[in-house]
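From the pipeline queue, job 12 of 40. The input is one protein chain; the requested action is below.

Action: predict structure.
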Amino acid sequence: MRRIILNVAVSIDGFIEGPAGEIDWCFIDQDYGMSAFFERIDTVLYGRKSYELMLAMGEKPNPAHKHYVFSQTLKTVSEGFTLKNGAAVDEVTQIKKTAGRDIWLFGGARFAGAMIQAGLVDSLLLSVHPVVLGAGKPLFEGVEQRSEFVLKDVKSYDTGLVQLFYDLKPVS
């Protein structure tokens, strides 16, 4: 079965956005392994807010990947995206069962929290930036049960960014 990877930038104090939704603290000065990551995946999953943020930044979907937007409120999405209005956990479970490469859970916090809660996230790739935001959007929202992960690798960069690679700990 395909693996779902939550790959996200996070501050030292656990926020993925600043208080006003800002992400200007995220390093974009080098690749940080993203080219290799894009080769590993063929599908990207977005919650509504992350999809809207991506569009506002002028980003376009990579035509080499399938792009799914999960929303109960949107009626349409831009070209290159597929809208999923059903129960997100059921929809993601079905996508995970299809043939293909790994799946990038792009975000956001509520959507990622729901996928963690449902046990659908197999791996975390946390790019920890050397900044304390003090407030903002937390990495996860709505997680009410414990999920344990095993550290698989650590990469550090001269900018101070540290990437932590975790896999979901198998249930004993």
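Job complete. The radius of gyration is 16 Å.
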